[in-house]
Amino acid sequence: MIRRIHEMSPRVPLTMIYGSRSWVDSSTGYQVKYLRNDSHVDVQIIKGAGHHVYAEKPEEFNTLVRKLCKTVDEEMKNSTQHREDAGSTQ
């Protein structure tokens, strides 16, 4: 993933979710954040969860995903509204 991260559009926001007890090292998420310093990259670590965060801590996982979806929806709405407002002034 690290070798190909530059191929992803910087306009695509990323959130990487890790369990604090996962065998997957969260340092990759922080490397992505560093490499995509011109993009929105968030690293979330859910305490007490292993690799299968969604199964081990479903309430925390679902709360986080709902929050992320709401944020993206609001940003999309604001972006669309901004483009519509800009188009109406031309």
Compact overview of the structure:
By secondary structure, the chain is α+β, with helices and mostly antiparallel strands.
What's the end-to-end separation, in Å? 42 Å
Number of domains: 1
What structural category arises from helix and sheet content? alpha+beta
Helix content percent band:
40-55%
With helices defined by DSSP (H or I, 4 residues minimum), what is the helix count? 3
Radius of gyration: 16 Å
Strand % is 5-15%
Global shape: flat
CATH topology title: Rossmann fold
Give the tally of β-strands: 2
State the CATH superfamily name.
Alpha/Beta hydrolase fold, catalytic domain
Order of helices and strands: EHEHH
> Spatial order of the strands in the main sheet?
1-2
Mean pLDDT: 89
* Uncertain residue segments: none
Biggest sheet features? 2 strands, parallel
Assign the CATH class. Answer: Alpha Beta
The CATH architecture can be named as 3-Layer(aba) Sandwich
Organism: Lingula anatina (Brachiopod)
Family: Belongs to the peptidase S33 family. ABHD4/ABHD5 subfamily.
Protein name: Protein ABHD4-like
GO molecular function: carboxylic ester hydrolase activity; lysophosphatidic acid acyltransferase activity
